[in-house]
Amino acid sequence: MIRGERPVPEPVLPDWEIPLYAHGLTVPEAPPTRVDHEAAVGPLMLGVFNVDRARAVTAFERLAAPAPSVACRGHGDPLTVDAARSLAKAAREAAATG
Question: How many independent structural domains does the chain possess?
Answer without folding.
Answer: 1
